[in-house]
Design a protein that fits this description.
Layout: H1 5-15, E1 34-35, E2 53-65, E3 70-81, E4 85-91, E5 96-101, E6 104-105, E7 107-111, E8 114-118, E9 129-137, E10 151-153, E11 156-159, E12 180-189, E13 193-195, E14 199-204, E15 210-221, E16 228-231, E17 233-239, E18 245-251, H2 257-265, H3 268-279, E19 287-291, E20 299-300, E21 307-308, H4 319-327, E22 335-337, H5 344-360, H6 366-375, H7 399-416, H8 418-431, E23 435-437, H9 439-450, H10 455-463, H11 485-494
Parallel strand pairs: 1-4, 2-12, 18-19, 22-23
Antiparallel strand pairs: 2-3, 3-9, 4-8, 5-6, 5-9, 7-8, 10-11, 11-16, 12-15, 13-16, 14-15, 17-18, 20-21
Helix pairs in contact: 3-4, 4-5, 5-7, 6-7, 7-8, 7-10, 8-9
The structure holds zinc ion.
Length: 499
Amino acid sequence: MSTPRSIVLTAALSAVVALALPATAGQASRPFAVDGSPSLGDDYYPTYGNSGYDVTHYDLRLKYTPATDALQGTATLLTRPLLDLTTFYLDFALKPSSIVVNGAPATFTQSGSKVHVIPAATLKTGSLSTVVVKYAGIPSKVSVDGQTYWVRTVDGAVAVGEPEIAAWWFPSNDHPSDKATFDISVAVPTGTEVLSNGIYTTRPDQLPGWTRWNWRSTKPMATYLAFVAIGQYEIDQSTAPNGLPVINAYGEGLGDNGPAARASIERTAETIEFESSQFGRYPFEAEGGVVPNAPLGFALENQTRPVYSSGFFRRGSNSYVVAHELAHEWYGDSVAVAQWRHVWLNEGFASYAEWLWSEHESEGTPQELFAATVAAHPADDPFWQVAPADPGVPELFGDAVYDRGAMTLQALRNAVGDETFFAILKKWATDRQYGNGTTEEFINLSKSLSGKPLDALFNAWLYTKAKPTIGLPAPLKAGVAAPKSLAKIRAAHKLLQQH
Ligand SMILES: [Zn+2]
C-alpha cells in the first residue's frame, strides 16, 4: 500500500474499538460441539476474523445500480469447520436478509460488523459446509464505529481498502490468515464496467438491459485484497511477455492525470518481468492495474490488479508506485501476513523493490538510497522510536514500517552477500506461496540460508526503539548528490498529502 498515512491511521484506530457482541446461547445438550469465537486472535485487531472454521471459496453473485448505490447479493461460502460447531461468526456490515447453512435456514443476530450464526444442525469437523447469505443495502450509507470504507463515485463505486473493506460488500472471515479462491460476479446496467481480481468474461444478464461480469481468482486470496471498481472505464487488454493476460482499466474523467497514469500503469508487464528476475516466478494468473476516477488517496496491492489513486500521477508518470504495488503480489498477497503486526514483511519489501527499481532505472543504487535514508533521520528523530517488527496499530502504516523495513533488507544484504540475499527473497516467496508468514520465520530462513547468526542485526533493525548501531552504511560523501530516485520515491508516498 502507498498512502498518505493519516487516512490509514484513522481506519486503523477505528478497528481497535471493541465490538459489543451478543452472548452466545448455551449448548449444554451438545457436549462435544463448541462455539466458534468472534476473533482469530490477531493481537493488533482482535475483532478481525473468526475462529472455528476456514473458508475455502467465496462465490459472490451481486447486482449493483450505480444511480442509487443499491447492492444486492448472494454470497455462498464453502467452509471447513475446524471443530464441531454449534454456532459461528461472520464479518459483515450490511444486513443479511437470510442465512442458510447446509441447506437449512439458520438464525442469526448482528452487532456492528459481526454476524452470529446459529445453524439448525452442528457443523461437523472437516466436513464441507455451505453458508448462503442473501443481502441488500446501500453500502455508502453503512457505517460501523463511524467508519465507511465503500467509496461511491460519480458513475459507480470502488471497494478498496486495507485492513478493512470486505465487510462493506460481502460476508467473510475477514483476516489474511484465512485465504480462499473467489468467483465475483456482478450484474450492472449495460454500458457500465466492472473491474475485479483475476480474469473475466462478460455476458448479457437474464435481466434485459443488464450485463453480468464474471471475475475469477483461482489462487487463494486474502479478503482485503478482493476488490470491485464499478463505473465508466476504458479497458486495455494485452498479453505479457510471460504469456499472462494484462487487463488495465482507466476511469472516465481522469483529465490531465489520465496520460501520466497510462504512462505508468502500461509498464506493469515490464515491471513484473524485472521483479520476477529478483523475486522468482510471478505467482498469479493475470496482471494489471486500475485507476478509478475517485479521490481514494492511496494505492493498494489488490491481488493480480493493484488500484491506484489518480493523484499519484499529478506530477507525471510514477513508475515507483507501480513497482511498489506490484512487488506486493509476491510480498503481501502471495505471502500474506499471519498477523497484522508483521506488516513490515509487506511494506518493507515493497519499499525495497522501489530501491531495486531505482537501480534498474539508473537512478541510484539500494546502497545509496540506504545511506541517504539513514542520513535523513538523525539519531534523535522520532522515526527511530518505532520498531518495524512491532510498530503498534497507530504506526502500522507509518514511515518506519516502510523505510526502516527497506533499510533492514539492505543491512541484511550487506551482511550475507548478494547471492544469499536474493536466494532468501526467492525462497521466502516460494516456500510460503499462497500462504502466510511471520517476522520470526523470515529471520529463521535468513539465518539458515546464510549460516550466520544475524540475531544482533535483526534485533537492532527490527525490534529496537533506537537508531541501530550496527549494519549502518558508510555516510554519503560530502558534495555527492543524493540518488535521483530519492525525491521520486518520497513523492510516491507524499504526493497526495498536499491535497
Ligand atoms: Zn505497500
